[in-house]
Design brief:
By secondary structure, this protein is mainly beta. 6% of the residues lie in helices and 59% in strands.
């Protein structure tokens, strides 16, 4: 009963919030996705949880609203909006912090593919253009180069990409006059192995970061009987396990994500609930 009451209150709060934002996003949402963090005790999930996020999506699962739910009163202060064109291509992203627009990215398309990204950030009481990403694509449509320019058009970084025959990135190299982000990468080399079904079985990634530090991570992927990704295990360069992520499905959709540390102990458990917008609590899609 308590769980039903909480979910009902959430839907009422979110509806009131969203109706007040109709000028910002077209209401074509038909589904909601609730994300909860299950409390962990001694490496085991408990029966208690906190609802931390709610997403609204259309029939093709394009998310239009992404709302963080703050405890303990489920306040909505930080959220993200996604805008699409008539063909469901993403054309604009907006991030709000403390209910104030903090960042905007505008996507420009060429034949349905992104050719340019404009980045805007908050400056005083307005958002100003801080950089543009100019994308070059090969004949296969894959991005081969990104040139980053500042608001005046001066080049501040370039990135080049190459791929294997399956379209998976194998090499990225960057040259930066200005560090774009705290986790910027100067180079990335990736190798893959594939299973008999053509799925990625392992992925080894070597990084050189903007601070010149190096990193190596090996990923091993396990799939369930339906061919869906079930387990991702990470290892360092010496073969020591760094952690793993388990995905649990229900009715074909992700219902839980479980995160384990380097000792295999569960430390975080996320649960997801799906509902058709406006449906009663007895009509969950889960």
């Amino acid at each position: 009963m308590m769980k039903r009451t909480i979910l009902t209150l959430i839907l009422l709060v979110v509806c009131a919030f969203a109706f007040g934002q109709t000028k910002k996003a077209k209401r074509d949402t038909l589904y909601t996705i609730t994300q909860s963090r299950i409390h962990i005790k001694d490496g085991q999930p408990t029966n208690t949880f906190d609802i931390i996020n709610l997403k609204w999506a259309d029939t093709l699962w394009h998310v239009s609203r992404d709302l963080d739910m703050e405890q303990p009163n489920l306040a909505i202060n930080n959220y993200r909006w996604f805008f699409y064109d008539k063909d469901k291509n993403l054309i604009r992203f907006e991030r709000y912090l403390a209910q104030k627009l903090d960042r905007r990215i505008v996507y420009k398309l060429n034949n349905g593919l992104v050719s340019e990204r404009e980045h805007y950030q908050l400056s005083g009481n307005d958002t100003v253009l801080v950089r543009r990403d100019l994308l070059t694509r090969g004949g296969n449509g894959w991005v081969s180069k990104i040139k980053v320019v500042d608001a005046k058009g001066k080049t501040i970084a370039t990135e080049s990409y190459s791929y294997d025959a399956r379209g998976n990135e194998v090499k990225m190299k960057a040259s930066m006059k200005v560090v774009l982000d705290a986790d910027s990468v100067l180079s990335r080399q990736t190798t893959y192995t594939y299973d008999s079904a053509g799925r990625i079985a392992t992925r080894n990634v070597k990084l050189v970061k903007s601070d010149k530090s190096k990193d190596f991570t090996a990923y091993v992927y396990t799939y369930n009987k339906d061919g869906k990704l079930q387990l991702t295990t990470r290892y360092d360069a010496f073969g020591k396990m760094l952690g793993k992520e388990e995905i649990v499905y229900y009715s074909g959709r992700v219902s839980q994500r479980k995160y384990y540390d380097d000792k295999g102990v569960l430390y975080e458990n996320m649960a997801y609930r799906y509902r058709k917008f406006g449906a009663s609590l007895d009509n969950d899609m889960y």
